[in-house]
Design goal:
The chain is globular. The two termini are about 20 Å apart. The protein has about 300 residues and is mainly alpha-helical. It is built from twelve helices and no strands. It has one domain. Helix 5 runs antiparallel to helix 11.
Length: about 300
Amino acid sequence: MVYLEHQEQTKGVLYTATSFTLWGLFPLYWKLMDHISSGEILAHRILWSFVFMCGILLYLKQVRRAIQTMKRLMLDGKALYSLLLSAILISINWYVYIWAVNHHLMLEASLGYYINPLISVLLGIIFLKERLNKIQTIAIFIAAGGVMISTVQYGSFPVVAFLLAFSFGFYGLIKKRMAFTSAIGLTIETLLLAPAALVYLIFFLKEPEVTMQTSSIGSLGLLFFAGVFTAVPLLLFSEGAKRIPLYQVGILQYIAPTITFFLGLFMYHEHLSAGKVLTFLCIWVAILLFTASQLRMKKTSNAH
């Protein structure tokens, strides 16, 4: 019994770590499409994610369950609006991330995902009435100090970082209250977004780089696999997260922004000023304090 539990936990760590590694490496993929507008990439990403997820539901034999879920949503206006809002939030997150990567803002994008867990904690306090201990409170203030340094240094707020952090934070908050699987959830979200994506590609895309061009087979292939690469890490994360404790998920999630940070710094040679160094140092100190607090709380609960 103990061996089986250990085996499941090992699988959970492997699945979760792989999902965050893939998310961290995403910029390499988006860079292959930097000749395509962010809006066009997003529209294709939504459409091909939906197509791929339909295939996944067929493979998992969850089509009937998905249809039943959609029928229930049609009768529950509040749940349907919540899912629509979550779909809009994740599409904003996807667009901003693609735009940031292809406009040489990978360091700021990584900052957004470093901040994201702390934003999620604040949202939990505001909307779920959760409480912070002293160490966690200090961590939040240190992170806020880092953001203030960045704001004063550049004379502007790190908009990209906070759009990423808040869009994904609110997305997670909404998803926390939903009872269906991530596969069904992502399928329905992309289904809700698909009509808008189609309308954009057909009627509003002024200078299509790929859409309607039969000569762009390579680019169309990249756009198709963007749907695959959207779904696979999410499914791995879903399988991994249910096998390991939440504090382990919290620690592993920093894999993605760390990979993105090093890609931006060493592979794409984005400028790291003294102000940015101070900002990242503050965020990293806050993360260490927050993680240490989580581990301490876990140890205390196990002792009792």
